[in-house]
C-alpha cells in the first residue's frame, strides 16, 4: 500500500466532521475558519517506540492515547479542541496495525469533537507526532504563569494509577483481578479533562496537566509564576485500586512522580474558592485541594499533616 492510498484508507475520515474545516486532508495544507473573538491554542506531543510505548502495545489504545495526551494540553489551557495533524514515521506498512491505530485515533478524536486535517508519513523507526489545535475566548487561556502567593493548589481525579499500570504491563507487579481492568484502563486509555478545563477559565489563576509526575510538573508552575508551594502528601487523591495494590509508601511514590495521569493541576485564589465546587459539580470529576502557594520563589515543599516530608525524586526526565 503506497503513502497516498494509506492516508486515504486509514485517515481521510478520521474524527468528527467539523464545519469550520474548509479544506482538510488531501491538499498541500488545511484551511480552517477560526471563530471571531477567539485565540488559537496549539500544542505538539511525540510518542516514540521504546520510550513512550512498548512494541507489543495494542495499536488501538495507542491511537487513543496519542489524541488524549495532546487534547489534555489544550484542556489545561481551558481551550476547546478542534483540529489535529499527524506525522507518522513507520518502519513498514502493516495494514492490520494501521487500521487498528487509525480506529483508536478516529474514535477518540470524534469523542473530543476534533477532526484530523492533515499530516505526513515517512519511513523510519516507529514514532508518532501529533499537533493539536484548539480555540479559547480571547484573553481567557489559562497559563502556568498566573499563580500568586496564597492561592490554593488543586488536582482533578486520582494520581498514580497509570504508573502502577506501567509496572503491571512490564510484569514487575501483580494486581488482583478486581483491580486489573481499572489500572490498565488508566494507563492505556487516559481521559483528557476538557469540559472541566473550560469551566476553570474564570476560576483558575494557573494550570497544567500532570504528564511527567506531580512533583516534577509542579516545578513548571513555580518557575513560570515565580512562587513556591507547600503540598500535603496526606491529601493526595489515590484510587482504592492503587491503595489496595501496594503499600502506602509505594502508592505515595506513584502518586508523586509516576506520571501519565493527565489530570489537571491548577491554582485558585482564595476569593474564588467558593465558586469552584458549584461550577465543577456538574462534571462528576473529584477535585482535591492538596496544598497552597507561597512566596518562596521556586521552593517545592512537602509535608505530611503537620510534619515535614522529605521527597527527592521529581518525575520523568526525557534527557
UniProtKB/TrEMBL annotation:
Q: What the protein does? A: Catalyzes the ATP-dependent phosphorylation of thiamine-monophosphate (TMP) to form thiamine-pyrophosphate (TPP), the active form of vitamin B1.
- According to UniProt, the name of this protein is Thiamine-monophosphate kinase
Q: Which residues bind Mg(2+) 2?
A: 45, 73
Of which family is this protein a member?
Belongs to the thiamine-monophosphate kinase family.
User: By its UniProt entry, which CDD domains does this protein fall under?
Assistant: ThiL
What's the miscellaneous note? Reaction mechanism of ThiL seems to utilize a direct, inline transfer of the gamma-phosphate of ATP to TMP rather than a phosphorylated enzyme intermediate.
This chain's source organism reads: Rheinheimera mesophila
Q: Does the keyword Transmembrane apply?
A: no
Q: Which domain of life is it from?
A: Bacteria
PANTHER family per record: THIAMINE-MONOPHOSPHATE KINASE
UniProt binding sites for Mg(2+) 5? 212
> Kind of enzyme, top EC level?
transferase
Binding-site residues, Mg(2+) 4:
28, 43, 73
Traced from the root, the source organism's taxonomic lineage reads: Bacteria, Pseudomonadati, Pseudomonadota, Gammaproteobacteria, Chromatiales
Entries under SUPFAM superfamilies matching the protein: PurM C-terminal domain-like, PurM N-terminal domain-like
Q: Which sites bind substrate?
A: 52, 260, 316
Query: Which parts of the sequence bind Mg(2+) 1?
Result: 44-45, 120
* Pfam families the UniProt entry points to: AIRS, AIRS_C
Q: Where is the PurM-like C-terminal domain?
A: 149-296
EC number(s) on file: 2.7.4.16
Query: Do you know which HAMAP family this protein is assigned to?
Result: TMP_kinase (MF_02128)
Amino acid at each position: 500500500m503506497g503513502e497516498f492510498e494509506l492516508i486515504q484508507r486509514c485517515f481521510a475520515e478520521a474524527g468528527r466532521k467539523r464545519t469550520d474545516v474548509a479544506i482538510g486532508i488531501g491538499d498541500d495544507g488545511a484551511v480552517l475558519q477560526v471563530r471571531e473573538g477567539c485565540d488559537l491554542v496549539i500544542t505538539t506531543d511525540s510518542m516514540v517506540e521504546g520510550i513512550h510505548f512498548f512494541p507489543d502495545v495494542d495499536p488501538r489504545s495507542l491511537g487513543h492515547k496519542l489524541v488524549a495526551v495532546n487534547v489534555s494540553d489544550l484542556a489545561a489551557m481551558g481551550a476547546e479542541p478542534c483540529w489535529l495533524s499527524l506525522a507518522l514515521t513507520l518502519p513498514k506498512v502493516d495494514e492490520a496495525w494501521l487500521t487498528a491505530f487509525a480506529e483508536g485515533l478516529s474514535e477518540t478524536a470524534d469523542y473530543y469533537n476534533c477532526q484530523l486535517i492533515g499530516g505526513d508519513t515517512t519511513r523510519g523507526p516507529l514514532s508518532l507526532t501529533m499537533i493539536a489545535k484548539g480555540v479559547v475566548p480571547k484573553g481567557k487561556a489559562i497559563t502556568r504563569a498566573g499563580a500568586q502567593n496564597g492561592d490554593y493548589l488543586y488536582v482533578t481525579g486520582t494520581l498514580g494509577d497509570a504508573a502502577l499500570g506501567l509496572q503491571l504491563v512490564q510484569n514487575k507487579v501483580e494486581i488482583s483481578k478486581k483491580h486489573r481492568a481499572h489500572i490498565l484502563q488508566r494507563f492505556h486509555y487516559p481521559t483528557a479533562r476538557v469540559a472541566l478545563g473550560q469551566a476553570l477559565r474564570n476560576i483558575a489563576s494557573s494550570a497544567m496537566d500532570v504528564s511527567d509526575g506531580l512533583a516534577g510538573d509542579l516545578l513548571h508552575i513555580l518557575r513560570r509564576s515565580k512562587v513556591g508551594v507547600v503540598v500535603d502528601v496526606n491529601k493526595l487523591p489515590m484510587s482504592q485500586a492503587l491503595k489496595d495494590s501496594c503499600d502506602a509508601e509505594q502508592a505515595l511514590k506513584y502518586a508523586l512522580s509516576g506520571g501519565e495521569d493527565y489530570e489537571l493541576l491548577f491554582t485558585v485564589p482564595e476569593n474564588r474558592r467558593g465558586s469552584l465546587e458549584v461550577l465543577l459539580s456538574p462534571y462528576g470529576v473529584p477535585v482535591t485541594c492538596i496544598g497552597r502557594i507561597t512566596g518562596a520563589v521556586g521552593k517545592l515543599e512537602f509535608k505530611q499533616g503537620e510534619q515535614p516530608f522529605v521527597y527527592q525524586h521529581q518525575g520523568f526526565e526525557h534527557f
